[in-house]
Design a protein that fits this description.
alpha+beta; 2 domains; eight-stranded mixed beta sheet; Rossmann fold; homodimer; BirA Bifunctional Protein, domain 2; about 40% helix
Chain lengths: ~425, ~425
């Protein structure tokens, strides 16, 4: 017998309770997205390698799992397929593949695994679920607002309380750089430093900005204005440039369009919020919640990305819920443990027992029959206990003679005799 | 813009209706298996390559998708991981990995994709779902009967009518060879020929048996006895050897134990039924249904397999439902098409529209907001029509002034004015 192996590094086996927990979570999010009129999409586990070529950048490309050619080509050591790295590249491919056969705009959600050959660490996996919602083909601010509201309701369905959407705009960020007269060449690096304001002390960020070449007076006023809860100063600055005004208008439109749908204070203009990814072109958001480290969801508008990924040139916006992060934070619920409704012991008359099981299952009761080799009742009741059974049924020689079944309440140990023909109805009624 | 690419050969994109159809089917089967006390299991998409080594036979091994090593090892052209070929090898690994942490017996089901680099053909895919149910750690005939009943109910949940379980036993097959005095060396080849009796004419099988070395008198009586609907002759023959008697007892026990659960005539002793796979050790079954070609489910007892696959030496039995085959046979239902309950047109007052959408969604209504750029009502109503919307809401300047919403029934074209505050309740009530 070979040594029992663990699942491959960075992957997990999901046993019963974990499968149920994940399915419940994914179904809950899916139901929310369906209410918003989004359609599900499932793409293959792998795509042709060329679909990824030049799409992901060097760092991401190194993390792709590649599939070796098959048959006589295997010896070449070459790959022609690659596991899905995210749901965005396949989305762009699908929009290209099906074109006008898709609804316009195409509102889709995908909740499923992606694969990245990252170094495994606590909470970082090589196979993990991503939960994406995107609208391709609409430039309307209503589409951005809809994504924010859908992500909000998705998080609520997962039971995450008091979420806060930090909202900004790539236009506003560019306007900010202009307003504070940051040299264009320094722009991205300055934004990179500002992005750390949620983790580092203002002084540290200020120092870094200076190191990166920003005059210290500029660095100081930028950091001071961005760390004040009140955004009036920044708003006034943004108002001095056209880009800034455009960005501010985008942010304010998103605030207005979500105000009637979400509880007050859930969406907050956060001018220091950058979102690392440079493919965003319009409003962007990150979601935080008390007790959850970092962001638990994020998204924004990315009008050029679908075309850059090989799809048609369509405006798009979307969001992603960090389901793995959220699931990891929530302790396994006791109710996750799914016991049997009825455990049938077997002390002879097996045909009758099986027929009884069929009747119980027809009532929708989760029913197990003892499949071990012991003929001792105590041993079989211990199995019923291990199965977290609510009721155990005993149908021994005495019961057979009297045409009854002994029904044992596994919590109280109380036993009742019930007519053979009434057992299914009795067990069904006694369901809590 | 790059050319829109198809999904990789042998794989499929599942668009909205197909995802819903598959999810409905898989959930229905899962609910049945849960009622039988089976637990879900999900293993990683790939396993270490060595988990498969020597487990699958040459033919199957050639069909494995292998994953190239990553990083600096990529250049070696070597693989270290492989996509799951079936759900049985991972099950054996899991039983080895978790041992006594699993319930005993371990009753599990898995419904999910497997990958095989088969030549794609109509109805044959390289990524396809398998639906397996297995009990590991029970030698009880009750376990075999439970699998048969669970598969039966799973097929019923898929809406497959009038299924028939063809039941046999590997012991009975060996007994059959003894009873008809087939030389041991010819055994497997004779069984291979008999396996074709469901496709070929008896004469053709008889001729093949003779070609394979069986005396023609033996071949004739064997084929004649196996093609008579009445099994009395075969039963009498099996009764002449100990193996035959054991096999017959296995079959009859399965018939008895399922008789009280399944409608009469659903389980039939079929002595000619072989099941190609030589790992079966006890009762075996194949399921047919009118209108479905070939078998739509199958299974049996395979006591040595878990150990042979690297797991502990435990008895086991299981079954598999051919979900892809069944899904392919069922025409897409019109009701699969999931339209919007409510489509909101947008002619201004966007904040109010978004807030209205939130109220409708809170009622559980699938609600879409027009996200296009046209401001023409006719164009927007045409979008609502494309979305298969039941109701369309219009909130233009007139409605705004009167604090009402025009609700249009998209089927009848009938329009009603409803107070702004009552719209959600109205739309919810009018749901069919």
């Amino acid at each position: 017998m070979a040594r029992a192996a663990e699942p491959p590094s960075g992957t997990r086996d999901f046993l019963a309770n974990e499968v149920r927990r994940r399915k419940t979570a994914f179904d809950a999010i899916g139901a929310v997205f369906e209410r918003y009129g989004f359609d599900p999409l499932e793409t293959p586990t792998f795509e042709r390698l060329e679909v990824f070529a030049g799409k992901l950048g060097e760092e991401a490309s190194a993390l792709i799992f590649k599939i070796l050619k098959r048959g006589v080509h295997e010896a070449s050591g070459e790959a022609d397929l690659a596991l899905r790295y995210d749901h965005t590249v396949p989305l762009a491919r699908v929009v290209g593949t099906y074109g006008s056969k898709l609804p316009s705009p195409y509102k889709r959600y995908t909740i499923g695994p992606v694969w990245r050959a990252d170094r495994p660490a606590k909470g970082r996996f090589r196979e993990f679920a991503q939960c994406d919602i995107d609208t391709v083909g609409s430039a309307s601010p209503l589409a951005d607002a809809e994504i924010v509201c859908a992500v909000h309701d998705g998080l609520a369905a997962l039971g995450v309380p008091d979420v806060q959407f930090l909202v900004n705009s790539r236009q506003a960020l560019r306007g900010l750089l202009e307003a504070y007269q940051v040299e264009p060449a320094l722009g991205e690096r300055v934004l990179g430093s500002l992005d750390k304001l949620d983790k580092l002390a203002p002084e540290a960020v200020c120092a870094e900005l200076v190191t990166r070449g920003l005059p210290s007076a500029t660095a100081e006023s930028l950091v001071a204005d961005l760390t004040t809860p009140n955004t009036d100063r920044v708003r006034k600055q943004l108002d001095t440039t056209e880009r800034g005004r455009l960005g501010l208008a985008e942010v304010d439109r998103l605030l207005e369009l979500t105000a009637g749908s979400l509880p007050a204070g859930r969406v907050v203009f956060t001018p220091r919020m950058v979102r690392g990814l440079d493919y965003y072109t319009g409003p962007i958001f990150e979601v935080t919640a008390p007790g959850y480290p970092g962001s638990i969801a994020s998204g924004g508008r990315y009008d050029g990305l679908v075309a850059a990924l090989g799809g048609p040139d369509l405006p798009a916006c979307g969001g992603s819920i960090g389901v793995e992060r959220i699931l990891a934070m929530r302790p396994a619920d006791v109710t996750d443990q799914r016991g049997l409704d009825v455990a049938l012991t077997v002390l002879g008359a097996e045909e009758t027992i099986m027929s009884l099981a069929a009747q119980l299952r027809a009532q929708g009761l989760r029913t197990g029959v003892y499949l071990g080799s012991s003929r001792k009742l105590a041993r079989q009741l211990s199995w019923a206990h291990d199965q977290h059974a609510r009721l155990a049924l005993i149908y021994g020689p005495d019961e057979q003679q009297a045409h009854v079944v002994t029904v044992r309440n596994m919590d109280s140990g109380e036993q009742t005799q019930v007519g053979l023909a009434e057992v299914a109805a009795y067990a069904s009624r006694s369901r809590c």
